[in-house]
Amino acid sequence: MDTIFTKIIKGEIPCYKIAENDKFFAFLDINPLAKGHTLVVPKLQVDYIFKLEDEMLAEMMVFAKRIAAAIEANVPCERIGIAVIGLEVPHTHIHLVPINKVGDLNFANPKCKLSEEEFKEIAAKIAQSVKL
Ligand code: 5GP
What we know:
Elements: H1 4-9, E1 17-20, E2 24-28, E3 38-42, H2 54-72, E4 79-83, E5 94-99, H3 116-129
Antiparallel strand pairs: 1-2, 2-3, 3-5, 4-5
Helix pairs in contact: 2-3
Bound molecules: guanosine-5'-monophosphate.
């Protein structure tokens, strides 16, 4: 069965897309911890990051690095925090979250409410900066 992320990758469910290549896809988290919070997912539907083949995992980190650079170029922040939770959606994904302090990467924090226009605007800016 397709996960919600596979449906997003296939274009069956809309998203605020950031970038893709042949193996990976990046899009804004719909319930972000911060403006620019992005998810990086493999197109191959594997439920748990540590079940990925070594080479795929390494390539995913390099793809995430390129996306993080584009987020950093457009969202004022100290760093891009990186987290893997995976308790809600059983399809490997890396969270890339702009942070200024350690507490900003706490998933129990209240989420950031953005309008559709704000999502579209930040997605377009980040997407424009991506250099894969
Ligand atoms: P996790 O599995 O890492 O605990 O959380 C899954 C993440 O995916 C959450 O941050 C949630 O907001 C995000 N998410 C869940 N469903 C969707 C969706 O349909 N679209 C987008 N863009 N993000 C989603």
